[in-house]
Amino acid sequence: MSSGSAIRGSRVGSSPMRPDERTEPAPRREVTYFCSAGHISDILFAAEASPPETWDCPRCGQPAGLDGKNPPGRLRSEPYKSHLAYVKERRSDEDGAKILEEALAKVRQRRGRD
After folding, report:
1. If one looks up domain 28-65 in CATH, what number appears?
2. pTM
């Protein structure tokens, strides 16, 4: 008695080797988008769907539009900020010193040093 698949070379969940002759793919249309970096992207949509005005460029991530002569501008990207930079925007140095002193007092109290 042999072990393995009943049909040699197939696996569970695999699709048929050739497309089914009884089915037809849904009608589609290709829409071309242009980004400011010069990339051209052809995106497929259903024939009855209206394409969006902008689409994220698959190559650079910038917005791409339908008008090749006037693509949308680049997004303004903010430089990376650390957590400390955001905290310093919200609090003054005096506030930070006061918060630090309160935290140190709590630590000293827990350790029994105060």
Report:
1. 2.20.28.270
2. 0.50
Output the known binding site.
35, 39, 57, 60
Structure tokens at 44: 């497929």
Q: How far apart are CA 44 and CA 65, in angstroms?
A: 15
User: How do residues 84-97 score in pLDDT, each as one tens digit?
Assistant: 888 888 888 899 89
Strands of the sheet containing 40-46, edge to edge, are: 40-46, 28-35, 63-65, 54-56
Which residue ranges are tagged as binding site for Zn(2+)? 35, 39, 57, 60
- Is the separation of the CB atoms in 33 and 18 below 8 Å? no
Rg (CA), the chain: 30
CA distance 74 to 34: 12
What residues does 64 pair with on adjacent strands?
Answer: 35, 55
The answer to whether 67 and 55 have CB atoms below 8 angstroms apart is no
How far is 73 from 82, CA to CA, in rounded Å? Answer: 27
